[in-house]
Amino acid sequence: MSRVSVLLADDNSAVLGQVTKALEKDYDIVAALKDGQAVVRECLRLKPDVVVLDISMGDINGLDLVQELRDCGCYSKIVFLTVHEDHAYVNAAIGAGAMAYVVKSHMSTDLGVSIKAALADKFFVSSSLLYGRP
Amino acid sequence: MRALKKAEVFRVVTNGARKVTLWMVCVGTILPVGAPAHTWARPSTILLKQDRCKTPLSSVATYFHQSLSKTIACWCGQLFPEIATRTLTESLPELQRLTIATLFVALIVESALIFVFLRHLRESKLTKEVLRHKETELAETQCLARLGSWRWDPKTNGMSCSHALCNLLGIDTQLQTMAFHEFSYFFTPESWNRLTQNMKIGLRTGASFELEVAGFRFDGTQMWLTVRGHAVHDVADHVLQLRGTMQNITERKRTEQTLLDSEERSRLVAELIPALMWWCGPDKQCTNVNKEWLRFTGRAMQEELGDGWLANVHPDDLQIFLLLFSSPFDRRQSAAVECRMRRNDGKYRWMRCTSSPRFLVNKHFTGYIGCCTDVTDEKEAKAANAEFGSKLIRAQEEERARLARELHDDINQRLALLANGLENLGADNNNVPDGVKCIHRNGKARELWQLANDIAADIQHLSHQLHPSKVHYLGLTAAVRDLCQEFSKQHNIGVECIVQDLPKNLEDGVSLNLYRAIQECLHNTAKHSQARHVKVELTRKSMLLHLYVSDDGIGFNPSDVVGKGLGLISMRERLRSIGGELLLWSRPSLGTQLEGTVPVALRQVRGDEACVADKNSLISSSPPSLLTVAERPRSHIA
Asked: Which of B58, B176, B191, B486 is 20 to 30 A from B250 in CA distance terms?
């Protein structure tokens, strides 16, 4: 059984490195992109099962990017990984078509769970947004 | 009874005449209704003096021609059938039928003659009455018109004056005729010369004349008169005399003189002041411009008169200028219009043209007077100021955005990594599987993880304060709704938020400045208004975005906050920087309303130039504005 392919996109190299490190044991990281503009092209080419995206990628708006991917016929599961700990962003992300919303400060605990939930067609939101910060 | 009534009427009529005698047979009695007087009333007299029963037919009949008697009898019989019948049957039954008939005919004929006479008398009396009435009316009219009539007979050299003229000249009304030379007393020598010359010409040629002369009343009071005269001819067309009128026009002359003085003064002022002035008549045609106008346009007076002055207005401004000028003109209201006018060097300058209607003392509309001042420098300074303000706001926002980005994209990301590292540290130490690590962290690591998360939250808040990234990532609609929700929660003030029909690709600058304006407005509401409810409405209507914020707070007097605080100035400048404007209305205890309009500007998309609204063109091509035609209920923010 082939491993689940994951495409990572974040304009911060350190975050990108840490996420790669955290996921590479269980998932096939097909690409780790800093450039938001390359995401659509690479998604169409690699057709990953899951796309882990940041909302703020320089001038690129991750929420707009999801819409662009859907318009281009890419139906990979979308997991947002961001520092915006705000319900307005969560609503916008789910509305755009994402399956999961993970806050970066909870990345180590929530990201793996969120990918599994997304693959099972279940929504996932970081617990700090659901119940407030522990 | 009807016969009695008619007899009574007849009696009243004849008594009214008081000149004739009438005896009348009625219901068997001869009734005296007047005193004997006239010869042609003789039949009655005969009847009275003689025994009516013995009156022979011939004695009555001889007084009238037979055919006339018959005709009159027939006529009267038709008029008074009751009298005739009753007389025959009741009054004198002993008389022969013919005798009675003759007697009656005699009486009726006499009555008819009396009727004719009375009618003649009444007509004569009425005519005299009408004549007297007309004379009174004429005198009153002359008096009201301050006008009197005169007649000069050259044969007697007598000058006859009407009562009204005597009154006008202030002389005794008994002295209605005087020698022609005595009349010179009432005129200045120059006027008398002109008058006599005209009268002599009239006498010689029969020509009519009319002239205004300076004169005096008998008591020496000065006055102005209009003298009119015409010749009266005999059958041979020779001039017999001159007749005419004199009218007192002193008041009119004084008004004219006052007006002339006033006009002269205003013209003098107009020539001295360094502004362009113009006058136009009730037909909107230019009647005059001052020297400064001519110097500015470099054209001749003749070129400016009539419609000529409009040639100076910029062709692009002409239509709207005429519209804004005509509308108040037709309502006789003051107006102020800004438009471009061509200077003598061919360059167009912005002019502020104000105008006011002109009225005479009697409220008669005589046209408009206007003044134009060059406001190009003022407009350029304002534009530069606005541009500077816009640049300042843009620079400030850019710097804030940069700082926010630094905090968010760098510091916050690193803090997130730190938090994750601490989380992993705790998890590694406890060597527990994913998903349950957090509950097994050791105490110190958990404390540090919590601290890192708190710092990250504070930095995110600070970053959002510096630059509202929600506007960029979520769009203005979601950002404003979120702002209102947060505000309501934070200040416990009910907020009704209506945001609809906003374009998704609204330009970032427009979105950000509108968001900032609402933020500032809500901030002011929380700080000063003591409001319990706030309404925020942001909608799109055609190519304009309308912002409306109102509260039910204590309100304030806008003039009290002029120059105080930067909040209102900042809001105005923000909207102005994106081509919009802001109006504020507030009264103590009546709450505050803020209304803003901004032209829609869309984010530029590659290859889709058409969807971008040119904001600058919207500002620069704004038409001339009407400044003071209608009172605005809301004041501009100072």
From this structure: B176
